[in-house]
Write a structure and sequence with these properties.
Blueprint: H1 4-16, H2 18-27, H3 33-38, H4 58-62, E1 78-84, E2 90-96, H5 98-102, E3 106-110, E4 141-142, E5 148-154, H6 157-164, E6 168-173, E7 188-197, H7 200-205, E8 209-217, E9 229-235, E10 238-242, H8 248-259, E11 266-269, H9 285-297, E12 301-304, H10 307-310, E13 320-328, E14 334-345, H11 359-362, E15 367-376, H12 390-408, H13 412-418, E16 423-424, E17 429-430, H14 436-447, E18 460-461, E19 464-476, E20 483-489, E21 494-497, H15 507-519, E22 526-529, H16 546-571, E23 585-588, E24 591-594, E25 602-603, H17 604-610, E26 615-621, H18 629-637, E27 646-647, E28 650-651, E29 653-665, E30 671-681, H19 688-707, E31 738-743, H20 767-779, H21 790-793
Parallel strand pairs: 1-12, 10-11, 14-15, 21-22, 30-31
Antiparallel strand pairs: 1-5, 2-4, 2-6, 3-5, 7-15, 8-13, 9-10, 9-12, 13-14, 16-17, 18-19, 19-29, 20-21, 20-26, 23-24, 24-25, 27-28, 29-30
Helix pairs in contact: 1-13, 2-14, 12-20, 15-16, 19-20
The structure holds pterin cytosine dinucleotide and dioxothiomolybdenum(VI) ion.
């Protein structure tokens, strides 16, 4: 291609693409998070919520005082070790347990032969809280290599591990379907999930210019630092489970179903989670084994999956294949998008990777069609990994848009702006907010986009080819009404209580900020308790919704607390302000005072002491008035009350634009990411330090997906070959470049109670295509399968 000048021209056309684009192109946007808060309509002060505070629980973690699930010290604890199948399909004929049982310390060995009963739990798609239906050791069927086929319980972990190695398993081999590329694999169309408008097939056939491409992504794993492990303790008909969980309410309902006991008799505790990235939304089958064994032996049991076992004890992101066709006129107007996707799923369960989620909303197109398929194979049921659906969707779409930009000789940002969707094209609803043009402008400015020579393979430094690439993405604003409680103590301490979890995201910190802000007290006086089903019910920390769900509920509780304090001050005879009417009192800066006497206030603590109360407990929730008890418990243990992006007549999403610079060593084919700059619209930001950390974390995960992460399946026996951190490579510090993140969001009061949008997942969406596009720019080679390894570039 020989078209440096066209790109220069295109750069100028960006300025002409309508008022919004022009404003962006000249604004040199560098909105910091702080500036966005200053204009927040909900805040009188806004100094606490929105502040750049460090994580409240950070010191506990770095000094080892924070106790994670399996660090609980329980008396009489026994250890369970699972044994996993070494064949991919077929039947277990016999498991010889004699040698294992004879070892000292072994308490029992459980297999399908002597069955530890577990009922099938209800999966979320059928109204329950489970992410998989599979219950281990209930039958002799081998579904995949790495499936739990036995649990050995002993006095010590070492005894259980040794005994586990002594089981002799006799298999009758079946005929496995190993992976998505297996010729025996049969796709199943998931019909109702498709979208269509216009006549995409005809538009495609008549296209002036089109791209018609196939993209694939590999199996990926969530690999949080804390492996999946739990302690279950059965006592007098009740069970307590310490389980690292993104959703204690869901885990609780699943445990009650597994054991067939009343949900009231189940408590799940999860104050700290060492990362989950989607893999700890559901309690996985090993938790069921721990619970059932604890009931059987009447002892607390710890079951920790080893790192290798986490690769098959639960599933990560499935491998995907996507075909994408985009047609456009020569001047760059998209006329049709046709998208079809296939993802692996378990042989007898359905996991859908919703690969059209970004495709169907990103660009204005008169004709569209998308279809989703699953491909059952002998694998553990795949699961959610950060940005499920949106992540592979953006990979295909944003790579194809780059290909179209080159086919048309139009700059990729120009092309995106030329096809700007004024409304959500999938339903014609207005966006709640969409600061995506601002994101393009800010990111392009920060990386020096317009200084690149757009010609592929045109930029180099010594042996290194230099490439610049960009891509955009979206993540829906999912919402579920939630509850919270605030306890005001006469000591001056304030507690915020919620069953929600903090897996490193910052929930502890932002809820303290929310309460402190609404009550006008120093944030240090607020303590937050999380992650326990005895606390006020919360929907999952998944789908990037928890921050907004819970800040909304805590803010409501704080406002209720203010009203309650005003009422007490005016009505309790022992209150020093009892002579006043509640309407003549004001709550400000943590005190109640007569509205006309700025200095005559009494603090919350002094008021409680004066009226003889030790503490005052106040609840708040974001349910619509009249919500039934059933709705509230549905919200906490199922997806029954979960609302997606479309709500209240608007379509609400977070948006991002990523810009990367890569260096490709021409001799070795190695790709290094040199710089990443991303601009995000996540609405109002509750804590910029934490949100930035979330975005950066997502970007690093995207880098891993683009260049490193790939689960290998042994074609002889379906084994996950690289089920460890040595062979399943994730980015280490040396891989991680200079990263800059920019917030371009504005408070979105149509999206959520306090104007925020999701932060946790948007960081990863669109990173891989930005890197792939940069690799193309550097080398002129379009690699359409992830990860982009040197063999593919060679
Ligand atoms: N935040 C903010 N302003 C907003 C929204 C969020 O400042 N408007 C910040 C807060 O610090 C908040 C955090 O971002 O705690 C994440 O908020 P949110 O986007 O609501 O996400 P959730 O609380 O629901 O957390 C789940 C989300 C998901 S779905 C995955 S996957 C993911 C992620 O969070 N997994 C993570 N980030 C993770 N971060 C860590 N350290 N570990 C994981 O496993
Ligand atoms: Mo996130 S994958 O929704 O836990």
């Amino acid at each position: 291609m020989t078209h440096g000048n066209e790109f220069e021209l295109n750069r100028r056309t960006v300025m002409k693409l309508g008022a919004g684009a022009a404003a962006v192109a000249t604004a040199g946007v560098s909105l910091s998070g702080e500036k966005a808060f200053a204009s927040d309509p909900t805040k009188s002060k806004g100094s606490v919520l929105g502040a750049r505070l460090s994580r409240a629980e950070g010191p506990l973690k770095v000094t080892g005082q924070a106790r994670f699930a399996i660090e609980q010290k329980l008396e009489n604890l026994a250890y369970g070790v699972t044994v996993q199948s070494t064949r991919p399909a077929g039947r277990i004929v016999n498991i010889d347990m004699a040698a294992a049982k004879a070892l000292p310390g072994v308490l029992d060995v459980y297999t399908a032969q002597n069955s530890l009963k577990l009922n099938k739990p209800t999966v979320y798609s059928k109204g329950g809280g489970a992410t998989e239906e599979f219950t281990p050791i209930q039958d002799d069927v081998v579904r995949f290599n790495g499936m739990h086929i036995a649990l050995v319980v002993a006095e010590t972990f070492e005894q259980a591990t040794e005994a586990a190695g002594l089981l002799k398993v006799e298999y009758e081999d079946g005929d496995p379907i190993l992976d998505i590329n297996d010729p025996k694999a049969k796709a199943q169309l998931i019909d109702p999930m498709g979208a269509a408008w216009g006549d995409a097939a005809t538009a495609l056939a008549n296209a002036e210019v089109k791209v018609d491409v196939i993209y694939t992504t590999s199996r990926e794993y969530n690999v949080p630092m804390e492996p999946h492990a739990c302690i279950a303790s059965w006592e007098n008909g009740k069970i307590t489970v310490w389980e690292p969980s993104q959703w204690v309410g869901g885990a609780r309902s699943v445990v009650s179903e597994w054991l067939g006991i009343d949900i009231e008799n189940v408590r799940v505790i999860s104050p700290y989670v060492g990362g989950g990235f989607g893999s700890k939304i559901g309690a996985h089958p090993h938790v069921g084994l721990a619970c059932a064994a604890s009931r059987k032996l009447a002892r607390p049991i710890k079951v920790s999956l080893t790192r290798p076992q986490t690769f098959t004890g639960l599933g990560g992101r499935p491998a995907t294949r996507q075909t994408l066709s985009i047609s456009a006129s020569k001047d760059g107007k998209i006329s049709s998008i046709v998208h079809e996707s296939w993802n692996e799923t378990a042989i007898d369960e359905v996991h859908i990777e919703a690969c059209s989620n970004v495709t169907k909303i990103m660009y204005a197109t008169p004709n569209f069609s998308s279809r989703l398929n699953v491909v059952p194979v002998n694998t553990v049921q795949p699961g959610w990994k950060r940005g499920p659906g949106e992540n592979p969707s953006a990979y295909a779409l944003e790579s194809a848009i780059d290909e179209l930009a080159y086919a048309l000789n139009i700059d990729p940002i120009t092309l995106r702006l030329a096809n700007w969707a004024e409304v959500d094209p999938s339903n014609n609803l207005p966006w709640s907010t969409r600061q995506l043009r601002e994101a393009y402008a800010a990111g392009a400015d920060a990386i020096g986009w317009w200084n690149r020579n757009p010609v592929p393979r045109s930029m180099r430094e010594g042996r290194e080819l230099i490439g610049y690439g960009m891509a955009a993405g979206s993540y829906p604003m999912i919402r579920t009404a939630s509850e919270a409680k605030i306890v005001l103590h006469a000591s001056g301490q304030i507690e915020v209580l919620s069953a929600g979890t903090d897996m490193g995201t910052g929930t502890y910190t932002i809820l303290a900020q929310t309460a402190a802000d609404a009550l006008g007290v120093p944030v240090e006086t607020v303590a937050v308790r999380l992650g326990d089903t005895i606390l006020p019910r919360s929907a999952l920390a998944g789908g990037s919704q928890q921050a907004n769900n819970l800040t909304g509920a805590v803010d409501k509780a704080a406002k209720n607390a203010r009203d309650a304090l005003l009422a007490i001050a005016a009505s309790d005879p022992k209150s020093p302000l009892a002579t006043a009417k509640a309407t003549d009192l004001t709550f400000e800066n943590g005190s109640v005072r007569p509205t006309r006497r700025p200095n005559g206030g009494i603090s919350i603590a002094d008021l409680l002491k004066a009226v003889g109360k030790n503490k005052l407990e106040i609840e708040g929730n974001t349910f619509a008035p009249g919500a039934t008890e059933e709705m509230k418990s549905g919200a906490d243990r199922s997806f029954a009350q979960l609302k997606g992006a479309v709500e209240g007549g608007v379509s609400a999403h977070s948006w991002c634009a990523h810009f990367v610079e890569v260096r490709v060593d021409e001799d070795f084919g190695t790709v290094r990411v040199k710089r990443m700059v991303s601009a995000f619209d996540s609405g109002r930001i509750f804590n910029p330090k934490l949100a930035e950390s979330q975005w950066i974390g997502g970007m690093v995960m995207g880098l891993g997906q683009a260049l490193l992460e790939e689960g290998y399946v042994d074609q002889r026996d379906g084994r996950t070959v690289n089920a460890n951190f040595a062979d399943y490579a994730v980015p280490v510090n040396a891989d991680v470049p200079d990263i800059q993140v920019i917030s371009v969001g504005v408070p979105d009061m149509q999206a959520t109670a306090l104007g925020g949008k999701g932060v946790g997942e948007i960081g990863v969406v669109g990173v891989a295509p930005a890197i792939g596009n940069a690799v193309f720019h550097a080398t002129g080679k379009r690699i359409r399968s992830l990860p982009i390894t040197l063999e593919k570039l060679a």
